[in-house]
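Shipment paperwork, digital attachment
Item: protein structure file
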Amino acid sequence: MRSFRFALAGCLVLAASVSAQTDFSKIEIKTTPLGSGLSMLAGAGGNIVASAGEDGVFIVDDEFAQLHPKIRAALAKLSDRPVRFVINTHWHGDHTGDNANLGGEGAVIVAQDNVFRRMSTEQFIKHLQRTVPPSPKAALPVVTFNDEATLHLNGEAVHLVHVKNAHTDGDVLVHFPGAGVLHMGDCFFNGMYPIIDIGTGGTIDGYIAAVDRGLALAAPGTKVVPGHGPLGTREDLAAFGAMLKEARAAIAALKAGGKSADETVAAKPTASLDERWGRSFVKPEAFVRTVYDTLPAR
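Attachment content:
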C-alpha cells in the first residue's frame, strides 16, 4: 500500500500545484520486480518501469526532478550501466519531471510527437485550472514518432503504441510482449476515477479506446502497470474499462435528454460506481463533469 499512497501523493501534488512544498526527502522509491530484467519503481508521481540488461538501462517515465538522486540510486541497484533511453508516456510533469537531469546525463528521451509540442510551449490543464510553462530544452524529447515505434534493447522488442485523445493527445502504451508487461501510463488509474486532460486533447471516448487497445495487447497473465495506483492485472484493466463504459453511458443518456452539466451531476449517474472508484483524488462530481464536457453536444 505504501507505493500506492506515494503514487497517489504524486498526483495530488500535481493537482494542487504544490510540488515545491512536498518534502521529497521523505519519499521512498519502492522497486517491484516484474521479471525478464524489468522492474516497477514507485515513488511520487507516475509509476516507472525500468529495463536493465546487456544493453544498459532504459526507463518508462521518470517522476519528479527532486527525486533524481533516489531514482538513480534505485536504478543502480538494478544495474551499474547508464540510462540510455527514457520513454515518456505523455507530457505531464509527474511523468517527465526528471527528463532534464537524465537527458543531461546522456539519456535519449523518446515520446510521441504531441508530447514535444506540448512540452515546448505553454499549456493549460483545464481540470486543474493550471498554466504550465514550457519545459527547458534539456527536458524535451529528441526522438519522436507519430503512431508506433519499436525499441530493440535488452533482448526485447519494446512496442510503443500511440492512443489518440485519451488522457491527453500524446499518450503512449509501452508493451513488453516477451516479458508479459504493459505500461499503460495515465490511460489506467488502478482502482480510481481517472483525470482526463481536456485542455490537451483528452476525451472519454479516446480513453475507452485506449483501454480497449491495452486489453488487446495484454495476454492473460500480463502485468499491467498503471500511471497511478498499484501494479495491476489484465482483469484490473478490464474492470477499469467496464467502469468507464458504464459511466459514459449513464452520463451520455442524461446529456442526450437535455440535462445541463449541473443537472447531470445532481442526478448522480455514477452512484453505483462511486464507492469503488470515487474515493481517491478525482471525486465523482469532477469525473462526471469531465465526461460530460468531452461527450458530443446534444
